[in-house]
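Problem 12. The chain below contains 256 residues. Write out its predicted structure in token notation.
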Amino acid sequence: MADIKGKSALITGGASGLGEATTRRLHAEGAFVTIADIQEERATELVAELGERARFVTTDVTDEAQVQAAVDAAVEAAPLWATVSCAGIGHPQQTYHHRKGPLPIASFERVVRINLFGTFNAVRLSAAAMADNEPDENGERGVLVNTASVAAFDGQIGQVSYSASKGAIVGMTLPVARDLARYGIRCMTIAPGLFDTPLLAELPQDVRDALGAQVPFPPRLGKPAEYADTAAFIISQPLLNGETIRLDGAIRMAPK
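Solution.
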């Protein structure tokens, strides 16, 4: 099993939700964690709470220079061994609506740019840094963990831009793994279902309960710590490579 202790982990979107849980988990595993996020206040609070082995770099994942700065900060602390990409957004709007008209191409592009381009930005720049690592006993030099969604497979009405971006993340998982195999760098993707994230926290409790009840088992919303557990497990298991794991309690989303 690969060990993250004493190595660096970069978490995009690492100041809240799934990313925050992953930051906490990998820090608890003994990693040097670098939070790449645009939420400066929240990230600064989290770094102050975690203390040693935690740092924050203001990062727009679509900006090459800012992502490179985050990678450099992680490498400065210790060899970059894991990058977990959690940064992302959604924009609920249908392809065409008789009152709103066609979905603005700028809105579609923004979602794809942040979710897909941002993820690949972190992937490619992290891989370049990982390739310089000394391999471990398995010949491994690093692990990339990306975040898709069940919307990649079961996109609902109004999720066209989100589903397109997350489907592309699933689609690039295997070719990225194949591209980087010669360097001993793995690539995996997690596709979460309905999770108790800050976005859902804004909904009334009865609505949250109703959403959780849609999950076959366990009939509840996923916990961010369960995502973090899965990311940590992927990092620790050398044979997990080039695949997407649905983390969804067997839910298959209805059209709406």
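Discussion. Strands lie at 8-12, 32-37, 54-58, 80-85, 96-97, 101-102, 142-147, 185-192, 244-247. Students who got a different answer should revisit the alignment rule from Section 12.3.
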